Amino acid sequence: MLTQSQLMGLEQNHLMEVEDQLLECRTAVAFRQMQEAASKVGLDLQCASGWCSFDSQLRAFNGKVMGKQPLVDEEGRPLNPANLNDNELLRAILTWSSLPGTSRRHWGSDFNFYDANAIRRDNLKLEPLEYRGRGPNGKLNRWLDEHMTEFGFFRPYTKNLGGVQPEPWHLSFAPVALPALAAFDERALAEHLKQSKLALKSHILERLPELLRRYFYQVTPAPAATLRNR
């Protein structure tokens, strides 16, 4: 069971290296097994981005609030944060990015993937078209649809449930992620956010329970098969 500090991205002693990324230890083992199986059919499953810290998520979040990082709407069209009120700005950010302390990637159980045989990581944009049809990750995506549950993985963002947009590139290791979500302590998060340099802090703390319901807890359920033999 992960600690609250690990759940919020404040510690990394539950992780191990996978190439140049970090994953939770059990997740890393299952990833390696799935990677080997994919390689047998000519696919090079790689982790584009694994664990992230609270501080890195904080920088990304604040950068979007301040207009220092790109901000887009649900259709991917650019937005100017100066033209949005606080509620509109929060919605635009949280549609695609996690509130610091709530990223599933803090847990090490979640990561973004790609097929290194079809696209270089530095060319990867993490856009839906890259994972559909003849897109560079389309073949790997279809293979994962058939086989990922055998290794304990599922996609937490398969459709728009009114919060986070679909992320076909995002995989989650159910045996770690499900207990992590259940153990998450909202009060611990609130206390840490109070002490942080989070932009829009007062507004976020005022709306925190609602924001968590919409953008954190609202995910696609893991298939029962992801927990078998794990």
TrEMBL record:
Residues 22-175 form the D-alanyl-D-alanine carboxypeptidase-like core domain. One of its GO terms (molecular function) is carboxypeptidase activity. PANTHER family: D-ALANYL-D-ALANINE CARBOXYPEPTIDASE, PEPTIDOGLYCAN L-ALANYL-D-GLUTAMATE ENDOPEPTIDASE CWLK. Signal peptide: none annotated. This is LD-carboxypeptidase LdcB, LAS superfamily. Keywords: Carboxypeptidase, Hydrolase, Protease. InterPro entries: DD-CPase-like, VanY-like_core_dom, Zn_M74/Hedgehog-like. It comes from Ferrimonas sediminum. It comes from the Bacteria. One of its GO terms (biological process) is proteolysis. It holds the Pfam family VanY.
